[in-house]
């Protein structure tokens, strides 16, 4: 009989609940609407700059200040470059922000239904937390955040609900919490409305986090960034430099600059995506789906008769991947990424046939 | 009179001593021998694969398992792919290893003179540590590590001393500490001798960390990796997935595969570098320098009459950058990276003139 002996060093391993990323099927004929990737390619300048990259210079460390990209982001958002922090995707930026700012003994606050990494980082860094419930319609109850806390993080638009809360709701929360750092995670903001960026000069405790993964079609390059007052950004950079001075590689820096420079391509892409989202909303309604108004590049849908889990499985069998969360309150919903026109046509072709033949 | 008011949220900022990376002069005519970069370009396959990269696919997340690169590393080192963990440079891998394995209340151990990030990560994660002194010749005193501890990390070859300790010394330390995780940080091993990799099947508490930044000329791409038994690697992956599932970008994965595939280019590059190092040792001796035998792509030199700090400054004034550490015991030493033949010729041209005219 084999005995499983636990070695002493194993007892000191940090225990975490591993995050399960969305399925990444590698087959080519899959309709992949499960990880909120953008259906359009990055700005044309990205291809050009990568093809012309001086690969010999890869022998050198990249610029630890990520200067070129920080400057271009600052220019785009009309802030100072000391107000911009860049990391390896917004997950990296957010985790770094947790480590930097959430060091109180008081719990940090975030909604019960939101991005699944928020509690995971708390566990990882042993940060206490509380999760006030969203209301029945998945809306933020701002008064729940008017109490003593060690920090606040709110995704706006929220994931996976897709709901965008108005800037005045966000401002109320920030204004009621000037004693702690409030992080607004705006991964999907470009598909929604006004960013909390307009508030960073008024509130020095506000950190706004965004990403190149969604509206800039660069999930594969891993670029996220934070904007806030200079003290917040300096604190983030201090922790970053103490952790790993050289994070973004040379290719990501160059590609990022090109992606953010091309304002017209950016705007057109967003408009095209919102157009496809509108059509999808119409088709879904006709098929008996219900969903909140989306401020994101995905829809959070529930069907009046077909259980979400069943639908998820049937779609998957037909090579259409959407996201299903087997979690309290949302287990009858699917998160469906807005894909290209062609992908959505195939989705609806299947749904029409499946639902109308039931 | 202006009063500096400390806001309540500022009190919860994690305080760190920021690491100061080596100077990164951007002027083109600088002889840069200060950050241990490789003078040769990456393997030719790297340029090719980046030029042919499908940039449209950057809209998609990279493979979170970094499968292609993990497999290629496993193949190169003849280990199983479950024995390989990949991160954003070895700093990322090491910091993740600290967070994963060093969770005891007992202090972790590392030498007093070693890589400057080791104590910084301890401060960041609030890990207690002790730093047994290297002997007068900067050699490891292995008996200092035969005591109760929460983990051990040893750079071999060590930085900034360049000294390689024999595999039997390393094995003695690992064998005396089977109750804690022992990390051997082998950033420079390919310029030295046998890797501790040969011991990972014998000792399940041994983690070997290496990098693409030195011997594979890819500092600009940020790729580091760890090898060890499957339990150690799984624990690292669990923490990674809980932190940021998608770390290496698409470009780094593809470039990494090409860099490790080209065995011949790799070997030739190392041989060429060791050849230049031999010549440099000869020239330095003639100029009155002393230094330990190097197992790295740099030399750790002291001059019999000229103070290191003075020399550092004079070299810098002449656009030659080397590394000076204003630290106890090593403040009369310079760390000089082995550059290209041309760079070294210019260094010695200057040194000959400067020292002989004094």
Automatic annotation (TrEMBL), chains A, B:
Which residue windows are coiled coil?
none
Where does the record place the Aminotransferase class I/classII large domain? 28-350
Q: In which pathway does it act?
A: Amino-acid biosynthesis; L-histidine biosynthesis; L-histidine from 5-phospho-alpha-D-ribose 1-diphosphate: step 7/9
Q: What single Pfam family name could you report for this chain, choosing any that match?
A: Aminotran_1_2
Identify which cofactors the protein needs according to its UniProt entry: pyridoxal 5'-phosphate
Alphabetized, the UniProt keywords read: Amino-acid biosynthesis, Aminotransferase, Histidine biosynthesis, Pyridoxal phosphate, Transferase
Q: What class of enzyme is it?
A: transferase
Any one GO BP annotation for this protein: L-histidine biosynthetic process
Locate the N6-(pyridoxal phosphate)lysine modifications and list their residues.
214
User: What is the designated name of this protein?
Assistant: Histidinol-phosphate aminotransferase
Provide the species name.
Herbinix luporum
- In the record, what lineage is assigned to the organism producing the protein? Bacteria, Bacillati, Bacillota, Clostridia, Lachnospirales
Protein's gene: hisC
